[in-house]
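Below is a filled-in request sheet from our internal design queue. Each sheet records the structural input a requester submitted and the sequence that came back. We keep these sheets so that new team members can see what a complete request looks like end to end.

REQUESTER: design group, bay 2
PRIORITY: normal
MODE: inverse folding
CHAIN LENGTH: 136
BACKBONE (tokenized):
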């Protein structure tokens, strides 16, 4: 009985810490302005909501006023932060959504930064994904 009560308490804490997609939508502007907020928000979302959220963030950035260069820089920074917050086992799905929802003019820059900073073990093994992490 004690184990059941403890399990229920743990589940309640986990559920309380989870962020809903609706709540995350209210943080889109903050996530665009601060990459640490983006990473933290992604970590609080369920795997399915992470994918939907990054699509909405990319749509918001694409619709912002400003030059193409500014938008591309923002897309790169925000999506890199999103990848760092992606749930284990959801990295490839979030990555696919980044490429599906980012504006075409941003994709070369996204690819360059991701290749150098996220998926390049020789650059810094502590921030790049191993084969095992990528597959999860």
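RETURNED SEQUENCE:
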């Amino acid at each position: 009985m004690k184990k059941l009560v403890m399990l229920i308490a743990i589940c309640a804490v986990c559920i309380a810490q989870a962020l809903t997609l609706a709540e995350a939508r209210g943080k889109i502007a903050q996530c665009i302005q601060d990459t640490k907020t983006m990473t933290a928000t992604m970590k609080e979302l369920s795997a399915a909501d992470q994918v939907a959220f990054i699509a909405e963030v990319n749509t918001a950035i694409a619709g912002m006023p400003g030059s193409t260069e500014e938008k591309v820089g923002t897309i790169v920074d925000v999506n890199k932060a999103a990848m760092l917050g992606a749930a284990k086992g959801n990295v490839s799905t979030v990555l696919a959504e980044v490429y599906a929802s980012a504006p075409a003019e941003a994709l070369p820059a996204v690819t360059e930064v991701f290749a150098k900073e996220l998926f390049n073990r020789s650059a810094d093994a502590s921030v790049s994904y191993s084969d095992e992490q990528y597959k999860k």
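SHEET NOTES:
- The CA atoms of residues 3 and 113 lie 47 Å apart.
- The first helix runs from residue 2 to 17.
FILED BY: M.R.
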